[in-house]
Structure to design on (993 residues):
């Protein structure tokens, strides 16, 4: 940051810039001189400006270096918004900020004024470079203030890619805007646009030459605001217009009309602008080149040798194409560090970059691997090095816990190949079994080198399961409210949603574009975690739909949660994850689905794809759908794979597997029928057995074993009367009143122009049976439900099933609380069993402690029960469920169980006078005497057996042989009758013949 006192004048700085560039900028050519005016031999005297902003700044002030102390106030910018172009400051407007101009720069005493504006803009948009006037509002309203504005590169019809300037003074029902005739676009690099108001004439100069004039009948006094703000740099007064995207290096204001000679004398010279353009270009080219490399002195992966940067076309040459090609491909076959000179030739001259390509070290690929120390998911065991491309294989100390790389892996004929070649598949221990540890060894080979590295990983036990008892939703509200909101049902009825968190946003973005749209929640394959992905887009921040599609975010925003209340970034930092390629235009509506074949999550999204990162072509810009793979929502395969490209616009796919097929609902983004799809802006249905199978046509007769077969189209508009997008499909829970048959699904479509989601209730069998001859949407039971029961005004979101504990946490907006438990005990003799049941009917893990007189024993639960053998001295047992380390189920204690008397009995046969006699022997191991009744096929008898004694009784059968049978033993405590014991013993077959 420089003080305006110490900052040298622009002319001096430009000389210093030129000198500084000499070593790196060879043969600089002066920018095109078309429409430029060279300074005259005797330059006209130029009056001092009322304010001069050369993009010096201090904190939130854009400094006025004229000496008049009319600093402008900055909003949205940081120090990083300002670039140093070899001594010349440039404010880089990226639709992220603006400057408020103070009053006094121009007054309304007459119609004379001058604004000089030096700018470079690469993208057309509905944005203002500067405006005199205040009052932001809709078109043709009184909220919209009167003004004069200039747009350096417009997207308006008739002015596309040209300078647009106009004056607006509203009168009656007329909007009052009068536009200056189109005079063309900017010159290459930085261009100075000067507007002069003189009487009732506006004159617009481009680099000193007149390109447009306008005669009007308005008065500047009707435009100059009465408040403290004269106008803005980079902000439109039209509500909904984008903030400026351009580089600005110099702005001056006069409260007077300059002559054409003064206009030419005042502005920066062509050489000065060329120097600034070149210096800025060099820095931007260098930054663009890097990709994943940390510096040009240590290049180990491909460079991005863009064909155009800042709107300047570049042609590349390499001093050693075998090491770095002219497309940026970096060789990994070299054995020593190799210097290479890359030369970019443009209309501004040549830029040279000396790079050093680092010889690959196989260990570097191993050092780049990062595995979670504890995992709940399959592991992304990379088989190709991220730095040098080394071949990597993995072995596991316990393949039953985590699989090794399979040398026999063969890629499928259709769909994505497994990037991990069978490795990294995790078998989590059961809930209650505890975590398990494994050591994984990676072996990397490259250019005859080999290296190994080990990784210790803890495999987490499975989380607690409980039946689903309700539903949750996530959504954003509108183009003006791009935050994530959530809602939950009141119970297990899908149509009973209401907001949670007191209706306040759950996540508000403070990073990247600062907007969140299209949130999608996916439950993990094991069901104990949720992932949420969202579009990184902020239309309300001033981004127009055109720029959003051509230069939108390449990131997705990703979180994870176990309770849908607390969300944490999967990457551990407050920013999104780049998954899209530089040639892409945007990354919209990401969703994810589990792929059974790949044992990974497929993250798919809609995007445009340009011919290059310059994004200059205008053909083949229909939206397509791409996918990447992930196992942890932190690392993703790259680059994205094209999934759907029929030559017509498709967006917003969502997937549901039913039986052996995946069913995919997608929006036809075309304005009308296209490629077999009957209507634009509506939903169609396809099916395939291979989730990642490519789609090149919308085809009723396609083979679903190899691609996606069309099974329905034009599914919602005929019922809703509205265009629809953002389809969602949700399997209804058991017990939901909307799921009487048990096969129910709710299908939802976002009627984005009419209040949000509308719902259809259908079945899995109905979806799976849809065909061209018998379409789901043409059946009599395909009817849109009345409005109600869904979140109010939800836009493009998602719906997911939840357990009772998660539902309660969302309703109370707190962490998940432990559910209550009940413990009961039963016995079979001295074997006592405790059964533990959770209030939500879910899993129970942990231990049970059994207690009796002077005795205790702890046993682990297995299938929600535990058993022990109780000593004979214990006559009463209580069981306490102790809970588990996760604290998800509360402890509970059973009622006392009386075990009665400790008796045993045996039956034997004797022969007496040739007849069978049964002898029953009762042993009393208890501490008290027992009154015993013995009964069998040959009568019953009573006897008292003293404590610690054995007694016998006999039964005469009067038969020479008897069949086997049983005898019952009934006993009570002698005297008190307090303990009772009943059991049976076998009576063996007997014969005396």
């Amino acid at each position: 940051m420089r003080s305006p006192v110490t900052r040298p004048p622009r002319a001096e700085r430009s000389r210093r810039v030129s000198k500084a560039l000499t070593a790196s900028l060879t043969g600089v050519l002066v920018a095109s001189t078309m429409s430029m005016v060279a300074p005259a031999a005797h330059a006209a005297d130029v009056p001092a400006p009322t304010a001069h902003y050369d993009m010096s700044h201090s904190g939130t002030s854009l400094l006025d270096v004229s000496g008049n102390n009319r600093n402008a106030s900055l909003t949205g910018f940081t120090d990083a918004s300002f670039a140093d172009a070899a001594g010349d400051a440039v404010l880089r407007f990226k639709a992220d900020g603006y400057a408020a101009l103070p009053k006094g720069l121009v007054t309304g005493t007459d119609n004379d004024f001058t604004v000089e504006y030096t700018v470079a803009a690469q993208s057309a948009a509905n944005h203002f470079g500067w405006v005199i006037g205040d009052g932001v509002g809709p078109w043709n309203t009184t909220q919209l203030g009167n003004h004069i504005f200039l747009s350096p590169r417009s997207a308006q019809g008739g002015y596309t890619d040209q300078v647009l300037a106009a004056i607006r003074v509203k009168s009656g029902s007329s909007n009052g805007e009068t536009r200056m005739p189109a005079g063309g676009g900017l010159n290459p690099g930085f261009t100075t646009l000067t507007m002069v108001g003189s009487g009732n004439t506006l004159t617009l100069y481009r680099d000193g030459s007149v390109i447009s004039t306008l005669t009007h009948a308005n008065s500047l006094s009707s435009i100059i605001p009465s408040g403290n703000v004269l106008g803005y740099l980079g902000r439109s007064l039209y509500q909904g217009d984008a903030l400026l995207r351009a580089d600005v290096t110099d702005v001056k204001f006069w409260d007077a009309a300059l002559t054409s000679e003064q206009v030419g004398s005042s502005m920066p010279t062509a050489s000065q602008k060329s120097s600034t353009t070149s210096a800025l270009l060099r820095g931007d080219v260098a930054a663009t080149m890097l990709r994943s490399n940390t510096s040009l002195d240590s290049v180990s992966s491909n460079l991005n040798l863009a064909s155009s940067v800042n709107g300047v076309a570049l042609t590349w040459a390499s001093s050693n194409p075998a090491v770095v090609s002219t497309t940026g491909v970096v060789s990994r076959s070299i054995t020593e560090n190799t210097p290479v000179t890359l030369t970019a030739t443009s209309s501004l001259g040549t830029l040279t970059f000396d790079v050093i390509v680092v010889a690959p070290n196989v260990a570097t690929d191993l050092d780049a691997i990062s595995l979670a120390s504890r995992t709940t998911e399959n592991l992304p065991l990379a088989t190709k090095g991220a730095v040098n491309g080394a071949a990597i294989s993995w072995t596991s100390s316990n393949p039953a816990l985590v699989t090794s790389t399979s040398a026999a892996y063969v890629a499928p004929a259709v769909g994505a190949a497994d990037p991990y070649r069978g490795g990294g598949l995790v078998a989590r221990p059961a809930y209650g079994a505890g975590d398990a540890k494994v050591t994984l060894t990676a072996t990397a080979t490259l250019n005859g080198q080999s290296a190994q590295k080990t990784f210790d990983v803890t495999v987490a036990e499975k989380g607690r399961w409980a039946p689903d008892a309700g539903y949750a939703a996530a959504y954003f509200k509108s183009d003006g409210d791009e935050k994530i909101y959530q809602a939950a049902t009141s119970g297990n009825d899908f149509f009973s949603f209401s907001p949670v968190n007191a209706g306040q946003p759950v996540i508000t973005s403070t990073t990247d574009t600062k907007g969140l749209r299209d949130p999608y929640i996916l439950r993990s394959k094991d069901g104990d975690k949720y992932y949420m992905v969202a579009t990184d887009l902020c239309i309300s921040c001033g981004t127009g739909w055109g720029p959003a599609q051509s230069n939108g975010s390449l990131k997705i925003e990703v979180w994870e949660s176990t309770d849908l209340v607390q969300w944490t970034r999967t990457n551990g930092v407050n920013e999104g994850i780049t998954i899209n390629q530089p040639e892409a235009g945007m990354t919209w509506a990401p969703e994810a689905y589990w792929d059974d074949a790949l044992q990974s999550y497929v993250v798919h999204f809609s995007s445009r794809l340009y011919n290059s990162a310059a994004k200059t072509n205008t053909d083949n810009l229909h939206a397509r759908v791409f996918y990447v793979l992930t196992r942890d929502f932190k690392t993703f395969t790259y680059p994205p794979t094209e999934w759907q490209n029929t030559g017509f616009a498709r967006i917003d796919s969502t997937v549901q597997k039913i039986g052996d097929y995946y069913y995919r609902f997608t929006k036809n983004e075309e304005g009308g029928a296209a490629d077999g799809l009957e209507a634009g802006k509506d939903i169609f249905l396809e099916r395939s057995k291979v989730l990642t199978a490519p789609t090149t046509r919308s085809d009723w007769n396609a083979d679903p074993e190899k691609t996606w077969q069309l099974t329905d189209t034009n599914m919602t508009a005929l019922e809703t009367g509205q265009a629809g997008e953002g389809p969602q499909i949700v399997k209804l829970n058991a017990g939901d009143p909307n799921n009487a048959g048990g096969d129910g699904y709710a299908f939802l479509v976002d009627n984005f122009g009419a209040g949000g989601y509308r719902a259809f209730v259908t079945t899995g069998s109905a979806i799976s049976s849809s065909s061209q001859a018998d379409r789901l949407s043409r059946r009599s039971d395909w009817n849109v439900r009345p409005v109600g029961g869904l979140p109010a005004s939800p836009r493009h979101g998602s719906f997911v099933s939840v357990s009772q504990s998660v539902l309660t946490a969302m309703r109370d907006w707190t962490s998940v609380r432990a559910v209550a438990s009940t413990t009961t005990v039963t016995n079979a003799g001295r074997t006592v069993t405790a059964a533990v049941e959770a209030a939500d009917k879910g899993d129970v893990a942990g231990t049970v402690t059994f207690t009796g007189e002077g005795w205790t024993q702890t046993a682990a639960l297995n299938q929600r029960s535990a058993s022990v053998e109780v000593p004979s001295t214990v006559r009463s047992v209580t069981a306490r469920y102790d809970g588990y380390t996760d604290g998800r189920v509360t402890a509970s204690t059973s009622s006392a169980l009386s075990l009665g008397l400790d008796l045993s009995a045996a039956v034997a046969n004797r022969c007496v006078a040739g007849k069978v006699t049964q002898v029953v022997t009762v042993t009393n191991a208890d501490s008290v005497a027992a009154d015993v009744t013995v009964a069998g096929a040959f009568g019953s008898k009573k006897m008292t057996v003293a404590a610690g004694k054995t007694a016998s009784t006999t039964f005469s059968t009067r038969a020479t042989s008897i069949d086997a049978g049983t005898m019952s033993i009934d006993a009570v405590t002698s005297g008190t009758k307090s303990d009772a014991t009943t059991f049976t013993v076998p009576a063996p077959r007997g014969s005396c013949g």
